Amino acid sequence: MGFEQRKQERQALVQHLLAQNWNVFGTLKFVNGRTIGRKSANKLLRSYWNKVDRVIYGKAAERQNMRVPRWCFAHEGADHENFHVHFVMPSPLQDTEHMCCLLNAIWAQHHTQTAPLAKNWIMPVQDRMAVTSYVTHEYWRMGSETLLDELCWDRTSANTMAQYNHAQQAHRITRAASPLWLQQAQQALNTQQAQYEANGDLQMMERG
Predict the structure, then answer these.
(1) Is the pTM of this model over 0.70?
(2) What pLDDT score was predicted for residue 206?
């Protein structure tokens, strides 16, 4: 595929993303992104998002195929070997920071191969254009394979998500991530936000 075609495809993807409703930007890492392997990584990612869906929607996640909207992107880093995933999504919770902490806590506890809290970056979006440019920046090399279609979902409206903000959801959240885990996730978020405020560089998420 030629450079010009990939440029056009990336621009189309950027415009599509900017037209969507999302306010959370995340980076999910592995203990070792160089050895995890795509098959194992994809299996963990699928089970992770399924768990997030169940926490937010309960039994409706399976019975009614309710999913949290998300757009997921595979990246391999500067050396093309450090596999990790970036995503954008709308927060199903009114408290966006709390949702960021919940997502990090669920991932950090998910498996022995998923990275600890401080290594993942999940934050409220401050600059949608910068985030969109960042999540698509490996399109030049990976092409459409950078967009993980099998993990993406865009068929749940904001109004539908709001219907699940009730006591049962809060109970499921407590079961998925204890107050201690959420407190530690909040500490990680505070540290990362301070680093981002100081540097304004999304590339920081790749390090570590």
Answers:
(1) yes
(2) 64
